[in-house]
């Protein structure tokens, strides 16, 4: 699902527009989920055991420094699902990510305790993506932009992670989430279309109204005060929504973090500025068109993680690899 929203002038964000693509809230475990999990190799999910060495910093003193900005809906979700799912995506002229780099910003001191192993699960999931053993990400390589280049893989997608000890506002607005992404981009020095920042909110924070706003996560883009491009994902603590956001779809309650995190990772790569690859009739991106499953267990060098299929124009359908 794609929804476009525009920031009004005078906000802390200087971008002329903030474009958002949101994942639907409804997920259902596929009938073969138990079979897939049983058949998966016995590779441990390292995320469940120990906290990786993630530095802790304070990116800003408090949420009061992040001025909310009003948003005006430009296109709503009612326009989706008007055409057959077999419709291929089309190119709309914008850039794609060529060398994906993911930066994780765990927002709030709550992440220090690695709740339910979620912090390490996300860390090791993105550390495993992009490596030569990952045969899921290369599905995206077929989607090129005006330069004739598409995404390339072969090294870990994870380029950095940090715990931001700054206070987390309750029900952070879209503008506050974007501002946190900009703070993370400044910390990492990660700007441009090859970088994407995941803003991970802790349990109970309800960013942008989650879990009652009809999405599990969304990806978006903005600019900082110097006009530098920042692609980011608003990643709530999806376990707060349970099975509605893919918990226990394949292997464990943490399944939703990789299914939904991977969904937004792929959509950012192939539609980083919200003007590249999507299905015009369905308003569907590479993840939207396959988000209802079936899901499967993907083996990465860092463990086994639940995953969703991606849309392949070459196969005219949803594929795993």
| SS class | alpha/beta
Total number of β-strand segments? 15
Tell me what portion of residues adopts beta-strand conformation: 15-25%
Describe the main β-sheet briefly: 9 strands, mixed
The helix fraction, in percent, is 10-25%
Q: Could you give the distance between the termini?
A: 23 Å
CA-based gyration radius: 18 Å
- Average pLDDT: 83
Number of separate helices: 4
Secondary-structure element order, N to C: EEHEEEEHEHEEEHEEEEE
- Return residue spans where pLDDT drops below 50 for at least 5 consecutive residues: 1-17, 24-48, 64-83
List the strand order in the largest sheet.
Answer: 3-7-6-8-10-9-2-1-4
Rough outline: globular
If you had to describe this structure to a student in words, what would you say it looks like?
The protein is 15% helix and 24% strand. The longest helix has 16 residues. It is built from 4 helices and 15 strands. The protein has a 9-stranded mixed β-sheet with strand order 3-7-6-8-10-9-2-1-4, with helices on both faces. The chain is α/β, with parallel strands linked by helices and 321 residues long. The N terminus is likely disordered.
List the helices and strands and how they pair.
Blueprint: E1 2-7, E2 18-24, H1 33-39, E3 56-57, E4 71-75, E5 90-91, E6 101-107, H2 118-128, E7 158-164, H3 174-188, E8 195-200, E9 215-223, E10 229-235, H4 255-270, E11 277-278, E12 296-300, E13 303-307, E14 310-312, E15 317-319
Parallel strand pairs: 3-7, 6-7, 6-8, 8-10
Antiparallel strand pairs: 1-2, 1-4, 2-9, 5-11, 9-10, 12-13, 14-15
